[in-house]
Amino acid sequence: MYRILAEEVVSVGAVKEVLFEEEEDVVEEERKEEKEKEREFVVHVPLPDEKETEKMVLRKKKMELLREYASEDLVEQEKEAKAMLNIHR
Predict the structure, then answer these.
(1) Span 58-68, mean pLDDT?
(2) Domain that includes residue 24, residue range
(3) Does residue 37 share a domain with residue 1?
């Protein structure tokens, strides 16, 4: 990069060249920052298989139906019955 002292007489072309180089540096830094942001972030997580997914969906639907149609007493009785029968679903 060129250094220009206050005492030197500089042509307009030299000043433009210095400014252009500085702009290139700024643009290059911006590109580097964008590339860093664009990096992919991949997390490897175990996914449930199809049967597990179906069970979860069915369980959720059952709970929604119970909330909608069953009284709280009935839900409590069902929980007690399952506890007595040792059913953990």
Answers:
(1) 90
(2) 1-42
(3) yes
The alpha carbons of the chain give a radius of gyration, in whole angstroms, of: 35
Q: Which tokens is 59 given?
A: 């369980």
**Per-residue pLDDT for 11 more than 80?**
no
Place of tokens 């029968």: 85
- List, for residues 36-50, the tens digit of each pLDDT value: 877 766 778 888 899
**Could you please report the per-residue DSSP string of 20-63?**
HHHHHHHHHHHHHHHHHHH-------PPP-HHHHHHHHHHHHHH
* CA dist., res. 12 & res. 20, Å (int): 12
Which amino acid is residue 65, in one-letter code? L
